[in-house]
Model the fold of this input.
Amino acid sequence: MNQHITRTEHSAPVREFTVLLSPTRRGARLARLLTTAHLSDWGIACEPAAHIVAELAANAAVHGRVPGRDFRLGLTAHNGKLLRIEVTDTRDEQLPVVSTLDLHAEGGRGLLIVEALADRWGVTHGPVPRKTVWAEIDLAPRPLHRVADIHDPVDHVPAFHDA
Done:
């Protein structure tokens, strides 16, 4: 007897979280903690997102700070396939810049971390005086390496080296 099992996968819903936070170190830390809590609750691996939020929130607190104005953290998980992180501040004239790596500098690596962990990131202007720095992480599983089939033997397997 042949059995045919059909498995229907239902898409996870779009989930959103938004909060206003004070542009302080404490607000930036709370942004990271809230991200970790919400993503964990949503069943999403949160380590890369937590690092991205930490960097973007720290930038909002340091470079996007305007006295009396909060920054906004937004998280949106789209059907279990995409996570979008948005940090909005009220200094649209203060654009984020990816620094060249200076091994002796105490800072300036934040956007390099964002660039390394996010699949895409950018800046959206408006409405005045706001800007939103956003990052997206693809949540769909990706193969770690190419799998060779029987008819395509691999002659050379690259070795990984520490830089």
